Each structure stands twice: as C-alpha cells, then as structure tokens.
Automatic annotation (TrEMBL), chains A, B:
Family classification: Belongs to the pseudomonas-type ThrB family.
EC number: 2.7.1.39
A Pfam family assignment: APH
Protein name, UniProt field: Homoserine kinase
Species for this entry: Phaeovibrio sulfidiphilus
Limits of the Aminoglycoside phosphotransferase domain: 27-257
Length: 321, 321
C-alpha cells in the first residue's frame, strides 16, 4: 500500500505536456507497491500507470529496469511498458523524483494462488529467464550473500526480540550458506521478487508480470526458489508439494533444470527464505510508526527457512523423479 | 486514504455475476475516502467505482444516500450513479459488508483550489440545493448541535492536550451556539462535507461532486458555511475574502441568499468550524495507531473558529454589499 508523494493537478498537467497520451480524465493513487508512489492515470486514450520513484530505488538503476521491461515485452513477456514522451525519453522528473508512465497491464494478482496458477507462474518464470538471456545490460544482486551479511550486521541484534535465539540461528545459517552457496549454476536476469502480488491473472490465465525493481543478474534457479517460498506455503508455514510440483513442472516445460540446479534447490531455497527474513526484519525495524505501510511478519520466513533446512532432496519440493 | 477490506478475485467474480457491466480487467484499491473501502474496477465496458461500506456508515442510511445520488443525477447535478444489478438493486453485500458499484466520475479534486474554482463550487452547491428540494426522503443531521454536544462529552477532555484551555473554549462556544443557532432559515438537502477532495474538476471546469455519506436535511446556508471553512482559508488559517466573494457570488447567481441567511452567516460559519474541530478531535482520539489513515489536525479549525468569532458581518466573507 503506497502513495507517498502527492501529485497535484497542475503538476500532472505540466508533466503530460511531454507526452502524446491524450487528455487526463482522472488520477487515482493506488494501493499497490510498497517502494514507489503509484497512480492510475486515466486519459481519453485509456488507462496508464504513473510511477514516482521514492528513495529506496536507486536512480542510477532505473535505466536497467526500464530497459528490461522494454526488452521483455519485445520478447513476448507481458509486462508494463515505459511510455516514451515526445522526446523519446520514458524517464523524467515529477515532484523532484524520477518518474515514468507505463502502459496498463490488465489483471489482478491472486490473493489465494492455486495449483493451476503455480503451474502458469513456473512457465512464465522460465520464459522470462530465456528472454532475459539476450538483455545486454547487467546489474549485480544487492541482496545476495554479501547484502544479507550487511542486513544482518544492521538488524541482527533485533532478531531476538522476535524469538529468543533467532540471532544465533541466522548467524549459523549465514555461515552455512557462505560455505555452501553454489557459484557455477546458469545465470541470467532474475526478477528476484516474484511474489503473487507481482503476477497478474485475468480470467484464470496469467496476464503479465510487474514490479521489476529488484531485477538483477544472478542464479536462475534461485529465482525459482524465491517463488517456491512465496507461492507454495499454506497458512504461512506448511509447504504444499502439489503446488511445488506444478510450479517446477511448469518451469521445466520451458527450461529444464540442469542436474546441478536440481541438486542445489534446497540450499537456494534456504537462501531465498533467509533473504526475505532479513529484509522483513530490517523493514520492521526501519518503518516509521504511522507510515501507511503494512509491516510483513518476518517470522513466516523463519518457519520456511527451518523447513528448507530439513529438506534432503528436490523431490520434496515436488520435482518429478 | 483507505482500503480497509480486501476483495479477492473470486469474491469479485461472484459479485459481478449480478451485473451486466462486462468482464473485469482490473481492481485497484484507491487512496480515496476515509470512511469506506474504494476500488477502481476496470471492465471491458470501462471504469467503475466499487465501494464497500465500513462500519462508520449506518447501513440503514444507505438507501437515502444512493437514492439521493440518483435523484441529483436526474436533476442534472453531476455525481457518481449507483449501478443497478440485473435485479434492479444497486445495494448488495460483499465480504459481509454493504457494497455498491458506481459510475466513474472523471476529474480530479483540486489540491490548491483557486478563486475561479471557489466560484464554480458556489454555483454547483446552489444548484445541488435547488435539485434537493424535490427529493422526497429526509435524514436528520447527526452532526448538528446535539451531535456536537455528544462529541464534546466523549472527547472534550482531550482538547486541552492540543492546547491549554481549549476544552473551556469549546464549552463556551457550544453554549453560545445553543442560545443563538437560527432555526427559521431555508432548509433542504445539504452535502455537509463538501471539502475540495469531494469536488472534481476537469480542464478547470467542475465535473461533479462525490461522497454524499454525510448528506442530510438541514439549513442550506450552513452548507455554504462548511465550504467557506474548507475552501477559503490560506495556510490553514488566513481567510481569503476574494475566494469567499467568488464562492458567495457563485452561489447567489443560482440561489440568492435571504436577508436572514446573510445575517446568520457568521454564526453558521462558527458552527461549521466547531463541527470539524470536534470530529477531528474525536478522530484523533479514536484512530488506532498504525491505521492507514492520515490524522487531520484539529487545530486548523480552532483558528478558523476564532476568525469567525471576530466576524461582525457577512461582508467580511466577501459578500457584495
């Protein structure tokens, strides 16, 4: 839920002089995304999304993200498209923030994703991974091992307030992952945050992906493990292997996993769980009281991490033998 | 800013089986209104607004409000229209709450209303008052003198936390208003909350009014005084008589005020300032911490109340002699 920056009608009128997208009919702040300010902009040519980038997104990364969305769309991966102004530029400034207009992606994210949706997501993720292979730009993953260590230094001491001993548990997991993290798996552009609220469905069919502001170059199978974490648990903590089976099968129908990737799934899943545990701890500690943002519970990812620690083989995720 | 109740895609699909408004393309929670949950619903027939009524609106009052919006629209007052389902009913239930779909009113509310907009607002308010004369239903104003006394009993003791002595000041004002409130002025349907965020403009022209959930039968000139309070102050506390002049002149171009109404303007303006002072004190005391609502500062209305207490004649509001 987020509208951080209020856009006045005269601000909008000036901004729209740079575009050929018709006359504005309405601008509604929408409760979507937690990193940026998002508005639904209606013009006489139809709906658009206006995004203002707040401080958490680095301005220097925006050309990578916007170029990626353009690239994906050219390759047939449905996602919002940055709309260029008359000068050909999609990225400009509004209210002293970087801002861009995007095409409107129809659909709604699934509040209770089912088995069929997990299967479609797996397939779309693999298609995105293949499409990303030809994207010429790169961006390091700021939230991989080194980033996790930094987050832990900043907020690890607060972990015990959530549950006694959690700080030690995280330290041990970090040490384990550092020693065992795979480095020779296939890499490419990953979404890195493909939770259900970033995937739209229309009439039961996946209609597109949104929110590429964590995208980076990293292990492809790690991206799949982020999705296993965020789509396949019931009641926040029980892994649903049927959903996992459909997600992995959907993925492999487009891009078969290598034997090394399959073997690495449990450790990649542990890393993914730890990543969201750490950022949630960080967000809980750093969100000002009264901010119009719902704090997400870090403990859900403690349970998921412990689940993955017990997993002995990718078969337990639903991989077909 | 408000989205209190989350609507899932299957909830929406079931709800829409009652309507002939096309296939849903998107449902976006919008940051508008603080009393209800509002969604922008896009279908292949265009945009609509879906409203879920939260507990602050009495369910028994909804037929009055929805009927009023229908009546106003028939009389040429632009406002959202309740969309009837196939059974002819506009009001049904969704997520265990009363809910209705409305036509989409284009436009945006003015963040910095200027003189010309104040003039248009005055004219639209008078047109609404005339149109309301033929509405056959009535609803008492729950937030008139008696309501204010009730609010003061509940939250008056907290007023001194905002500024020392405020509680006594309010008590004295309540006593004064009780002794001096006019009872023989023209009455009719009033909006009772026509702040700038409830009035849309498109290309500089007033395109319609929204949010009729405080509408009731009361003194028409009191409604104008609510607008003088909410549209005509600069920097929250300095009355701009040029804006007042244009608003009153706009109003009188459609419905001339009676001499008794003109004489009563200062006391009605005091009442209006006190009403919003009291409800803001109440809201500040009763909004749970962390609720995704911006607390509005009650003190703005202390300053406005004190201004009105010094006013000796409606000429000071910009009334043309």
């Amino acid at each position: 839920m987020a509208v951080y920056t209020e856009v006045f009608d005269d601000d909008l009128a000036e901004f729209l002089t740079h575009y050929d997208i018709g006359q504005p009919l309405a601008l509604k702040g929408i409760a979507e995304g937690v990193e940026n300010s998002n508005y639904l902009l209606m013009t006489d040519q139809g709906p658009f999304i206006l995004t203002l980038y707040e401080k958490r997104v680095k301005e220097g990364d925006l050309p990578y993200f916007l170029g990626l969305m353009r690239h994906f769309s050219e390759k047939g991966v449905a996602c919002p498209q940055p709309v260029p102004g008359r000068d050909g530029t999609a990225l400009r400034r509004l209210k002293n923030r970087p801002a861009a207009i995007f095409t409107f992606l129809p659909g709604a994210w699934p509040r209770r994703p089912g088995v069929a949706q997990c299967g479609q997501l797996g397939k779309a993720l693999a298609e995105m991974h293949l499409a990303g292979q030809s994207y010429p730009h790169t961006r390091a993953n700021a939230l991989s091992l080194e980033g996790w260590e930094g987050l832990f230094r900043d907020t690890g001491h607060l972990a015990d307030e959530w549950t006694p001993g959690l700080s030690d548990e995280i330290a041990a997991e970090l040490a384990f992952l550092k020693d065992n993290w795979p480095h020779d798996l296939p890499t490419g552009v990953i979404h890195a945050d493909l939770f259900p609220d970033n995937v739209f469905f229309l009439d039961g069919t996946l209609s597109g992906l949104i929110d590429f502001y964590f995208a980076c170059n990293d292990l492809l199978a790690y991206d799949l493990c982020i999705c296993l974490n965020s789509w396949c648990f019931e009641n926040q903590r029980e892994f649903n292997a049927t959903k996992g089976l459909h997600m992995i099968a959907g993925y492999q129908s487009v891009r078969p996993l290598t034997p090394a990737e399959i073997e690495a799934l449990p450790i990649l899943a542990r890393g993914a769980a730890l990543r969201f545990l750490l950022t949630r701890l960080y967000d809980a500690a750093n969100t000002p009281k009264g901010a119009m943002v719902t704090i997400k519970n870090p403990m859900e990812y403690v349970d998921r991490l412990r689940f993955h620690q017990r997993v002995r083989s990718a078969l337990e995720y639903g991989l077909r033998p």
